[in-house]
Amino acid sequence: MSSTETSTNSTNETVDTTYPFAPVEPNEAARRYAAIAAERPMTKMTMPIGGDVWVIHRNAAAREMLSDPRFVRGPFRTGERAVPYFVEFPDFLKSTIQFEDPPHHTKLRKLVQKSISPKRVRAMRESAVEFANHLIDEMVAKGAPTNLVSDYAVALPIQMLSNLLGVPPEDRPKFQKWSAATLAVANMPEDEVVQNMTELFVYLNDLIAERRKNPREDLLSDLANAPDKDDSLTDGEILPIAMILIVAGFDNTANFICAGVLSLLRHSDQLKVFLEDVDGVAPTAVEEVLRHGRMAIDDTVAGGGGLVPFVATEDVSIDGHLIAKGEAVLVDPGSTNHDGIAIADGEKFDVRRKENPHLTLSYGLHHCLGAPLARMEMQVAIAELFKRLPTLKLVGEPVVDYDNLTTPTVDLPVSW
């Protein structure tokens, strides 16, 4: 089920407001997103898995829903109903904090936020810069061309997350091997994925037990040794936190780094602006990549996407539209980031954009826990790469795996 209509925009052009829509040029996608949002706040869509879901198009409506405690994820976590989505969610993901609701979610989130505080992330920045340059040194020594995904975009987040979790340096090679099983870019056979995931679970359980006895300055130590008795967590509660950070911290951040590099390489005018003041522009450039960058990965953009859905616990009106009790709803950030209302000239990729209330990392209760870390890694990764290799260029077409949950870039061939 979808909506198929036409609308007339401010220039009296007829715009197709069908949603979802087949791949079109990025500027046309932006026009359609704006026309759809002008016409209606949301569309009911039948997903390949899990049935019907309302897809929100307007930025303000999305923020309203994401701030409303009457929308929950418990029925998905318990298996009461399937998650309505484009692909099936792995069972282990449904056991993570991403699918928790208050009050348990509130307790877990408070503890993790202390460990991924802006202060701790700032302290990690120096080591991120050092490791990024180490990876660039290795790429230069090996020589061009190279696949930026495996040689840089994935390697940097893995190193940073190892630091955050407290994985000892001597264990990092095997930790990276096991964690790769959670990555979309791994392309491992199913039996190998199961074996590596099992070994990762066992390793993390052992590391949590070790950090209970001998705490250090890392996230697992913080979670295993909460100072307030009411905040104490069991090993079974800590493990899913570590797992969601591994999945989100590796795959998604690597995707964002690739999107940033591609966005700049495909917008020569913005690359010129960026190169004139790399460190000064990096923070706003990263926000613009998060908002708009996926639209630069392909020559065409399909209309249809979304963050993890919720279920309404009662009848709720959002932006004048009724979502009935038991109905599912999700936010399409591609649409809300280009709704023609919240962000002026949203079709343009502007690395100096100041007002940028995008929803790529969600909002409210379920705003991405690792957002400070992801932003820092993106800023460092993109800035250091172009400072060292300002002549970076594509030497082939990027390859994206559309059959995977995170639609990762698996090959990004570059030279310099």
Automatic annotation (TrEMBL):
Keywords, in A-Z order: Heme, Iron, Metal-binding, Monooxygenase, Oxidoreductase
Compositional bias annotation for Low complexity: 1-14
Superkingdom of this protein's organism: Bacteria
Root EC class: oxidoreductase
Gene3D superfamilies given in the database record: Cytochrome P450
EC numbers, comma separated: 1.14.-.-, 1.14.15.15
Protein name listed in UniProt: Cytochrome P450 CYP256
Organismal lineage: Bacteria, Bacillati, Actinomycetota, Actinomycetes, Mycobacteriales
Gene name as annotated: vdh
